Amino acid sequence: MAIFTEGRIVPLIAFVLAWVATYLAIQIGKEGKIRIRRLPGLDAIEEVVGRAVETGRPIFDIPGRGSFTDLYATQTIAGLSVLSYVATLCARLGAKLYVPMSRVDVLPVAIEIVRDAYRAEGKLDELDVETQIPYLSGTQFAWASGVIGMASRMKPAANIMIGPFWAESMMFAETFHRVGAMQVGGTARMYQIPFFAALCDYVLIGEEMFAAGAYVSGDPNQIGSIASQDWYKIVAIILSVLGMLLATANITVISDLLKL
Description:
Layout: H1 9-30, H2 40-55, E1 59-62, H3 73-93, E2 97-98, H4 107-120, H5 129-132, H6 140-154, E3 158-162, H7 168-178, E4 182-187, H8 193-199, E5 202-205, H9 208-217, H10 220-248, H11 253-258
Helix pairs in contact: 1-10, 2-3, 3-4, 3-9, 6-7, 9-10
């Protein structure tokens, strides 16, 4: 009986190396030696908060409807990291923030994130949790209807949607566009990216939302994870180009190696 199955040796080695690379990147990140490039979308967030202050209209931040126990937990965490950043700006500048929620497990975390942001700015007395961070519904389109109703009544100056979204993404983007809100959208769900690209003023595409969440949070675990992914991408690109060149010369050493 073989200890290793043919065709699974390289994936096993790659998995181990990925774990080691992530661990090393996190340790380096804790030492402050890894930096993430600031994305234009983050500058856009400051712009939309400033617009809300100037117009005296509220700002919405919707972190999606993912939970901490599904496949989209990392997107939810990235969205909450951005929410912390947005809440800090709103508290500091005096913009009215609304965060309509749809997940009971994410709701208390979102509340504490916003509370901490307002507390840090000395503005906790200006926060009305029940009004500004309402739980609308756990059902997708009931929640979507509630958000659309709030947007239609309040006519916010800006809307930030960063997190996992489903069919409601188009409904939100169209509604906020109709009421004249400036929008920043971001998701790693491929099917929803075109809707954000069509109607949002700024878009964080795919992994950009994770980079944005890591940047604003400063969490070395998130920063290290982003860095290790980039290292692996570089290695994959090098192997792809090298394998292509060698295959052109009828040298199949790379492809043979990857079959192990």
